[in-house]
Amino acid sequence: MRTPALLMTAVLIAAAVVACGSGDSGAVTLWMYPVITDQARSVAFWHRVETGFERESGIDLDVELQPWASRQEKLGAALVAGTGPDVVLLQPDMIPQYVGENVLLPVTDVLAGGRRPFPPRVVEALTVDGQAYGVPLYRTVTTTVYNRKLFAEAGITDLPRTWDEVEAAAPKLAAHGIPVLDYAGSTEETLNLTFYPLLWQAGGRVFTPDGRKSAFASPEGVAALRFLADLEKVHGLPPDAATKRTAVAGDAVATGRAAMAHAMTESAARGVIAAFGAQNVAIGLPLRGRSRVTFGTPGGLSLLRRAKNPDAARKLLAYLMSPSVVGELCAESGYFPPWDGSSPPADQVDRDFAQALPFASAGDNHPQARKVMGLLAPHVQAALLGRATPEQALADAAGEADALLGSGR
């Protein structure tokens, strides 16, 4: 077990050097990420987890706190080198890829032994071919957040709840020099928080139901990208929308440089409230296009096939999914527990975000999800830059994606 001082050192250097864990066959190594954003609180929580699990099981636990940046590349390199963790936090759209590469072991038996059943939609997001490959720890959800003050200054009293209403509000806000909608179009951004919620709201999807081809170049996909392109033309997006990154400090809505966001996290919403006051901020349901839907996902712990001691690792998974550990993790992180109605929301912001949970989607469960996202992102950006029409941008991306899917790689 690491000492708190050593854990803090690992966090501060962003885990640049990947540790291999203990050589003891009874030891377990867990790679965890900044679910708890405050470093000191994260270190303290995982130290409590280490000591609690070791006391209960007699198994040595080594928690490696890793950065979000380049997480797939680092995990892939560790797997090739035969190092890395026994248990790792994965998002649902990462799991099918690793299952296809025979990297993960199923954990359906661990879930079956839990003290509290998980909602089917949570388990399904972590399931491939009828087997669960992730133990849910928490749920996230994004939703629409408004700066009431900016809308009021533009003479808009009814906040836009649909695409049509957003488009109608755009020129009025633009006349005051304010984009109606924040958007981060950098190709380094995850489309889960940018284009995909709009695609889903239009009634579209990323892959065909059989998973053999892409589906985003459909009329629904074109409608989603045209919605953005049309806003861009009337100055309804930030001037640098096509290339900008999401920024915790200097968020466009929090700094008054955009009137609303369509897929904001709860922590970011709290930043807007801190900047403008609760009376000037509204948190609504996800926008409605043809459908009302947003991005939200369970975070799950997966068991690697290369685990030194799978039985010890399964004991760790069972320990971590206990209501007491999950409850404390969610309280520290601000995320929602994976169980429905498991605890009352902490405050009004929590209550507002909880109302969006029924509309949350983790996206298409496909082994090429991340690769296709990487292919699509530059084409979405090209449409925002005016270098391609929405139709041409998505058609070009579909050609690349379908070639990838057809290759079987």
Describe this structure in words.
The protein is of the alpha/beta class. The protein has two domains: about 200 residues, D-Maltodextrin-Binding Protein, domain 2; about 190 residues, 3-Layer(aba) Sandwich (D-Maltodextrin-Binding Protein, domain 2).
What is the strand tally?
A: 13
Radius of gyration: 22 Å
CATH topology of the largest domain: D-Maltodextrin-Binding Protein, domain 2
Reading off the top of the CATH hierarchy, the class of the largest domain is best stated as: Alpha Beta
**Mean pLDDT score:** 90
* General shape: globular
Largest sheet: 6 strands, mixed
- Please name the CATH architecture of the largest domain: 3-Layer(aba) Sandwich
**Number of individual domains:** 2
Derived from helix and strand composition plus strand pairing, the structural class reads alpha/beta
The topology string of helices and strands comes to HEHEHEHEHHEEEEHHHHEHEEEHHHEHH
Distance between the termini: 39 Å
Detail the poorly predicted runs.
1-25
Percentage of residues in strands? 5-15%
CATH superfamily of the largest domain: Periplasmic binding protein-like II
Q: Helical region count? A: 16
Helicity range: 40-55%
